[in-house]
Description:
Layout: E1 2-8, H1 16-21, H2 24-27, E2 32-36, H3 56-67, E3 70-75, H4 84-93, E4 106-112, H5 120-132, E5 136-137, E6 143-145, H6 148-151, E7 152-155, E8 158-162, H7 165-184, H8 186-191
Parallel strand pairs: 1-2, 1-3, 3-4, 4-5, 4-6
Antiparallel strand pairs: 7-8
Amino acid sequence: MSRVLAISGSIRANSFNTHVLHNLQSLAPAGMLVEVYKGIEELPHFSEDLEANPPAQVLRLRQAIQEADGLVISTPEYNRHIPGVLKNALDWASRPYAQGVLTGKNVVVLSAFPSNAGGLTANLQLRNLLSVVNAYVVGGPIVSIPEVHSALAVQADSPAVLANEATRGMIAKNLDSLERAVQDNTGAKHAA
Length: 192
């Protein structure tokens, strides 16, 4: 069984990206367990001064990433960039230099935003950032969910359901690719 950690780049209580991530388990291949991470808003701003003795929140994030076989990161787009809170989390996870828990990690990238572009610019920036820290971005369709507010069917007292079948199919394809990358240890081979 593979364990996948899903990280939302939005900390908003009713985040579209977090809703999307809560749909992953229903789209995952058999044997894949998806857990949505909570707590990136608790991380202090990255500072090299704290690297020698990182705060507990940083250690918790690093441990969660380290223990996961793969990651799915979903980002909104703020001012044509990934949110600062997500960049901060990735900065902490990529350190110490050349020893971060993102090195060799297999990752699927998603973006969702109410605009027609669906956060595509942030999606591409996130892919670039992950390659810089030597993570392996799994191949497959680029999933950028435009007008995400219309793609989610809101349900009382539970996460919204991703109703668009084409989007569900693309995400499922990426999760299948992630499973193959985990089984083949592609990320570690790529990092080496």
